[in-house]
Amino acid sequence: MVPGALLPIHPPTLDLVLVCLSLQAALALRIQALGHPLERGLRQAGLALLLQAAGLGFGLFLQGRTLPGLLSNLCLALILGGACLLYAALRLFYGRRVGIWIYAASALLTLLAVSLGPDGAEARFGPASLLVGLVALALARECARRTRDEVWPGPRWLCAFLFLFLSLVAIGRSLLPHLVPAGLLRFAALVVYGFLGLGMTLLLAQRLEARQRRFAQSDLLTGLLNRGGFEAYAARVLARARIREQFTSLLLLDVDHFSQIHRAHGHGAGDLVLETLGDLLHQQLRERDGAGRYEGDAFAVLLSETHDSFAPPVAERIRRAVEALEIAWEGHAIPVTVSIGVVGTGESGSDLEVLMQTAGERLARAKAGGRNRVVAV
């Protein structure tokens, strides 16, 4: 057994296995990217792992050779650059913003790896391990963040654990080389590359499942939830609110004189009004709120964690925003207003059927009272 090694295998053999595992993970992600061309994160993740495999393979080729330190640093740069690119790929995969600063920081870290320390592998190994550990920590944090396209958090936590394990070992090897053997770092890398392809495959599978569920529960015209999707969403939110003893409010909206819009301008104009209203609700509501096209020109909005007294101002803001819309159809301006009924769980309880009935009664009063108004009592 090699002194300081964790596994009773010759280190170059472990390095060769590591190269093969990284190539396998890169190939798996590239194949998945071919089947899902819109998933840019997969394509970039495959490229990132390919860069790391090249760095590992180049380093394996240089072992035992007396060559300039710049070549060894180039291996580290490929590994570190690949890790940074993988971070950007994860953000793309999760639909998060990838600013130019991420690529600038990646380039800076890569250049830093090229210029690391004097000649000698040991002199460069400490700083390189620290840089790799910090990037792995950022990757772990990215995986740990909750995402909406999630059926089960297990795959996400698997990837987060893998990167966290690698981060702790790499940073420990850099700061406490006498306590963390080099063999443990090799073992951590083997574990990460051995399971990373599986973890990303599971993430993609549940992402597609969540997308199918959302598609089945979505209204194709407005992009909001359909009636079944909204009722399922509302049931989950109201059940959670009961457990946590939180308030929730419901808005029921109806487009005023919608049948007249149909008669005057045709069904295409009516569809444009509904689609525009769906876009407006997306803009006006918070991420934790939910909205659905309940039936015809009626829309339902559930305001999560919102007290009864805070819901009417939200409804009034939506009413004013709809009134200010400028919708044009075939050269004609279409004025649009909505009537809104508002109810909260503080006064009516958390049964969805009761809430919908009360909100419907108040919506009817708003329309009978002249339309383009909010009724909350």
UniProtKB/TrEMBL annotation:
The record places domain GGDEF at 246-377
| Its EC number(s) | 2.7.7.65
Quickly give the catalysed reaction.
2 GTP = 3',3'-c-di-GMP + 2 diphosphate
Q: What is this protein called?
A: diguanylate cyclase
Q: Transmembrane segments in this chain: where?
A: 70-93, 100-118, 124-144, 156-176, 182-205
EC class of the enzyme, as a word: transferase
| UniProt entry keywords in alphabetical sequence | Membrane, Transmembrane, Transmembrane helix
Organism for this UniProt entry: Geothrix limicola
Is the keyword Transmembrane assigned to this protein? yes
Q: Which CDD domains match?
A: GGDEF
